[in-house]
Amino acid sequence: MSLVAGISKSQMGELERNGVETMAALAAVPLQWRPERGNVKSFEKVREQARIQVEGRER
Question: What is the C-alpha separation between 5 and 49, in angstroms, rounded?
Answer without folding.
Answer: 7
